[in-house]
Amino acid sequence: MSMPYRRLGRSGLKVSLLSFGSWVSFANQLDDDLAVRCLAAAREAGVNFFDNAESYAGGQSEAIMGRAFKTLGWKRHEYVVSSKFFWGIHDVPNMTYTLNRKYLLQAVDASLERFGLDFLDLIFCHRADPDTPIEETVRAMSDIISSGKALYWGTSEWAADEIVAAIEIAERHHLHKPVMEQSEYNLLHRRRVEKEYARLLEDYGIGLTTFSPLATGLLTGKYLEGIPEDSRGALAGFEWLRPNFEDRRKNEKVRALKAIADDLGCPLAQLAIAWCACNPKVSTVIMGASRVEQLQENLRSLEVLERLDDEVMRRINEVAGLE
Predict the structure, then answer these.
(1) β-bridge partners, 211
(2) Can you name the residues that pair with 152 across neighbouring β-strands?
(3) N or C: which end of the chain has fewer CB within 10 A?
């Protein structure tokens, strides 16, 4: 099956249904050479959207991806690239855990420098900032779009009412509105996208760039017998993921879902990714990978899409529930 492309919400931009993100992997697991090979494999499969963030590996992730673009010799019109801002990488006042104007305008410039690019296609407010008025953030993000340093802006893991507030402020003041939201969405984490955002998606046409389709690896099934030494769960600095991998109730669901995948003759990871892609409200499903072979296997999730008929979806929903 060839790669489908979906509009990013009601915008005119089209992104590949499956996309590639660098969280955890770049710098932590992938060096420049492996990053080049992964990006090349993704592009060969039809992926055109590559997700990143300022805070990933303290800025190194953006730099590695930027060097990979240059090494591959891709033309700027051939791909869509994003970054996200909030956490910051400079531990001084106004530069961490904020969406104030000073930080945002400086952060996008620094991001472009690390990427070696003239503009980003998408920029996200990586989390909501309770200490900065939403209007200040909206005006700063709108000014970045007007400057040409980015083409579209959106939010990540914001509450529905916060997104609506940002949209209404932008409309009231004739500013560039947020057009996309990046949220966690997988078989073990559904409620925000399917319930909290339901009216938001219908009324405002926000595009969804969802992440963690494998629940940080839990939905691969590889943690059913403990945490492998070569896995993300064993990485230094990611100890906070271990309670998730060791959650008995979640692992019971994973076992039941694996049985469904076995009946379909596909890996659980492919089933989980294909399930996310089945939601027509999802513009793109962001995948991560630490090996080319892993990425190529996950890209074959497209082949599973047509097998997710009503009966299979009923079985999946009976197991997964609405968490």
Answers:
(1) 184
(2) 122
(3) N
229-281 residue pLDDT tens:
665 555 666 676 767 777 888 999 999 999 999 999 999 999 999 999 999 99
Query: What would the DSSP string read from start to end of 10-43?
Result: TSS-EEESEEEE-TTTBTTTB-HHHHHHHHHHHH
Residue type, 154: G
Pick from 228, 256, 253: nearest CA to 242 = 228
Token pair 């793109």 in the structure block, residue:
284
Q: Has this prediction a pTM greater than 0.85? A: yes
DSSP 38: H
Contacts of 234 (CB under 8 A, 6+ apart): 227, 228
Residue type, 168: E
In whole angstroms, how large is the CA radius of gyration of the chain?
19
Tally the residues of the chain: 323
| Phi then psi dihedrals of residue 167, to 5 deg | -65, -45
DSSP string, 285-302: EEE--SSHHHHHHHHTTH
* CA nearest neighbour of 220 among 190, 186, 243: 186
Helix (H) or strand (E) holding 189: none
Q: How far apart are CA 87 and CA 102, in angstroms?
A: 14
Residues 264/10, Cβ–Cβ less than 8 Å: no
d(CA 237, CA 25): 13
Phi and psi at 285, nearest 5°, equal -105, 115
CATH code for position 258: 3.20.20.100
Quote the tokens at residue 75.
């033309």
CA gap 19, 209 in Å, rounded? 9
Distance CA 78, CA 296 (A): 20
* Domain limits for position 288: 5-320
192 CB contacts (<8 Å, ≥6 apart)?
183, 184, 185
Q: What is the pLDDT of residues 18-46, one digit of tens each?
A: 999 998 666 666 789 999 999 999 999 99
Counted domains in the chain: 1
State whether residue 118 is helix, strand or coil. coil
Which of the residues are catalytic?
56
